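The pair is quoted verbatim underneath.

:::
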Amino acid sequence: MNGDAADMQLALSPEETAAVWTSLEVGLRAVAVGLPLAVLTALMLVRGRFPGRSVLNAAAHAPLVLPPVVVGYLLLLAFGVNGPIGRLLDQAGVRLVFTSAGASLAAGVMAFPLMVRAVALSLDAVDPKLEEAARSLGAGGLDRFCSITLPLSAPGVLAAAIVGFAACLGEFGAVITFAANVPGQTQTLPLAIYAALQSPDGDAAAMRLAGLSFAIALVALFASEIVARRAGRWIGR
């Protein structure tokens, strides 16, 4: 009898399972869209010399110092149905606010500085002389990037993807401000934990979800370390 009760407490409800899948979907979509932008931004910051570089650097890292609720509110002002970008998207039949795609946008913005930083550190480790040698042999900018810079910085790019995904799984303030807490649509694991804590008998559900969230984050960070090491060894051959 006690075993049955324990199984019932450990089993996820349909709503909790939906929150897990929503978290994974939100994180994967955010990384898929944000990682190429993070690579481009990091490349501009590390290799670029242009007016406004410091402004770009500040803007890329602003989510690190801004409260997540403020980031969510700024997204709401820009991408809400009455915002300058959101109004245009709404006329085109695309709505981000209070949607799963909007949750990915909010989570991706918060994870963006982490991805930029990881890629930038990896790009810093690439010897510029290799790129200069390729340029002297007639390789164009895109060719140098694809054949030298990107392969050599691959460990950092892979680590950025995994760390960014882990950060998206844990994002709360920006997501709930911009995408709300809609079960089955925008309710991610942190939001489900918050909702469980608001109910008188939600301690068991909050404990289950918190443990699951912790396990997923640890697996993601562990995977990041393994991938970075193996990629580093592969490049060093």
Observations:
- The chain is about 80% helix and 0% strand.
- The two ends are 58 Å apart (CA to CA).
- The longest helix spans residues 14-47.
- The CA atoms of residues 19 and 192 lie 7 Å apart.
